[in-house]
Amino acid sequence: MRRSALAAVAAIGSASLLLAACSKADDNTDNGTKSAGANAATKDVVNASTAKGGTVTYELSDVPDSFDPGNTYYAYMYNFSRLYARPLMTFKPAPGEKGNELVPDLAASPGVPGDGGKTWTYKLRTGLKYQDGTPITSKDVKYAVERSNFARDVLSLGPNYFQQFLAGGDKYKGPYKDKSAGGLASIETPDDTTIVFKLNRAFQEFDYLVATPQTAPVPQAKDKGIDYVKSIVSSGSYKFQSYDEGKQAVLVRNENWDASTDPLRKQYPDKIVVNLKVNAETIDKDVQAGDAIDLGGTGVQASTQAQVVNDADKKANTDNTYGGRLVYMAINTKLAPFDNVACRKAVEYAIDKVSVQTAEGGPIRGDIATTVLPPDIPGYEKADVYATDGNKGDVAKAKEQLKACGKTSISTNISARSDRPQEIDAATAIINSLKAAGINATLKQYPSGKYFTDYAGVPEFDKKQNIGLMMMQWGADWPSGYGFLQQILHGDAIGASGNTNLSQLNNPEVNANLEKAIATEDKSARDALYTQIDKKVMDEAALVPLTYFKVLLYRPTTFTNMVSSAAWSGQYDYLNIGTTKK
């Protein structure tokens, strides 16, 4: 999930920034409302309220990859899109690990498996309607899956699980090219409330897969391809009143949403406003003033972190938690000289991870990482293949590996997102580490909204621009080893655009074990396979784990029903946030 915009903070020498923000401060008032205490939203609903009215405002430092539910892959958009796009299943709005509970959304109940997990059947709730009052049918769900997975030349973002697993998916050209009435034969809609997915192999975690916004219904007659984002037809509790690309989106209540068909959404605010391309420091100020919520859920910036950590009252309004995220640097295994594993191992040994952690704000923003899987994802097992003294890198070992790959020095480029100053600082710390070992990397910056469609996620672009190293942060698509690993490590996940397997790893053993794992019914056996995959990837030096990311969010007390959910990588669950401001 889901890419998460890197929320590390700039290098600051003050030791105070390295304090853990997890102690509970005394209750205090902020904007006239009592604080619930530090980390309160990870344990319970903060400012619980059924009051309606007012406007909830979100701010984002760039633009999202897309508001189109079938063309997005940022965690915050998976979270936010549920306000207007209901998938078959979703995650329960609840704090902490309780938020990982999967519950029916558009579907009336979880899927019914058949044929050992190769067939999955869902029944829709009755009485479902779009914003214009027309009925939502199973055919609309089928069409949504077809457009989002099989028209990658038009909608390149989002994972391609359905394309990989649906029978005949390798041959189907998508609804924009296929003009037949039937569409993909392996998705059956025997009636308007039943949808059946027929897979080419068993998939034991399929309920998680249909929780992606790719299963949110789209009426084919209203689809405009890449321009559907300008006139999205809502199936949720809110609909778009206006959309000014690159500037602002405004949502208002969907009058044809029926609470009797939806036990999850509450429709509290009158209006929801999303302001785009807002300076990151300005977002922090607005959040502390109680005027906005950071849509990206990246956490506070460097200067704000210092204020928050050292002020007991402000610290009491923070939530600092893990969320199944890894901050890492992908190594392009297809680009010389990194197509030689010894050259990749040189990078592994060269990096001073303490300097990177410090650039990210210290331990408060995450422990130093040595594995692909974070500790809160099933399959994690403590290991450190490239251990160095104090995690500060080993120049001598790095040079040994350079020699083994026939090099005394390397010149390459490293990509990072231009609107994420924290990510740039982390990349700069890496550049300084690599230089000592004879690896000279030049920073290349690209906007996060196009990072995957136009730049780092385009293998041909990376080749032409000599981008051998890519800054990345990843959160699990769902809380399992498969949900974390598949889209960043399986060869079938590599795409011409919107690619998230930035390393372009296509290792037969990794691929085979991922396939074996998802077909295995026994969970403990699946988890053991995820551990094996992690070890193999580290042996291949396909990426450099940097930190097990912890988000540090400031919780405005002017907003109600705030929960920091593990399902959304520690972000606040956006489904039912209201406001005390009328």
In short:
The protein has helices spanning 75-81, 138-149, 161-165, 206-209, 280-288, 302-309, 312-315, 341-350, 353-359, 395-404, 421-436, 451-455, 459-464, 481-489, 508-519, 523-540, and strands at 29-30, 33-34, 55-59, 89-91, 102-104, 112-114, 119-123, 187-191, 194-198, 238-244, 248-253, 271-275, 293-294, 318-322, 325-331, 366-368, 410-417, 439-446, 467-475, 543-554, 559-560, 578-579. With 582 residues, it is of the alpha+beta class. The chain starts with 28 loop residues before the first strand and ends with a strand.
CA-based gyration radius? 23 Å
Mean of pLDDT: 92
Kindly estimate the percentage of residues that lie in beta strands according to DSSP. Answer: 15-25%
Structural class: alpha+beta
Q: How far apart are the termini?
A: 34 Å
Number of strands: 22
Main sheet specs: 7 strands, mixed
Low-pLDDT runs: 3-33
Number of separate helices: 16
Helix content: 10-25%
Assign an overall shape. globular
